[in-house]
Amino acid sequence: INVPAGALPDKYGVAGALSTLGALYGREGNYSQAIEYLQRSIVLYQELGGTGIKYGYQQADNLAEMGRVYK
């Protein structure tokens, strides 16, 4: 398959978008949707980072946002 660069969403971009959507849903009071998007974002960042902590900041930021949703 010969797919041009940028033709498909990359995991990092999708993870960032899910994080943003989760934060927005949390601010709107749709807490279950917020948690779902934030958890999906964390999973993608974990897949990208492998066994290291390359995306640890993004994961921590999502966890902090989940804490704000649960407050």
Q: Which runs of at least 5 residues are low in confidence (pLDDT < 50)? A: none
Span from first to last CA? 47 Å
The major sheet is characterized as:
none
H/E element sequence = HHH
- Percent range of helical residues: over 70%
In one word, what is the shape? flat
**Helical segment count:** 3
Measured by DSSP, the beta-strand proportion falls in under 5%
List how many beta strands DSSP finds: 0
Helix-and-strand structural type = mainly alpha
Q: How big is the Rg?
A: 13 Å
Mean pLDDT: 88
Could you characterize what this model shows?
The chain has helices at 11-28, 31-49, 56-70. The mean pLDDT is 88. Helix 1 (11-28) packs antiparallel against helix 2. With 71 residues, the protein is mainly alpha-helical.
Descriptors for this entry?
71 residues, mainly alpha, 3 helices, 73% helix, 0% strand, flat
Short synopsis of the structure:
By secondary structure, this protein is mostly helical. The chain contains three helices and no strands.
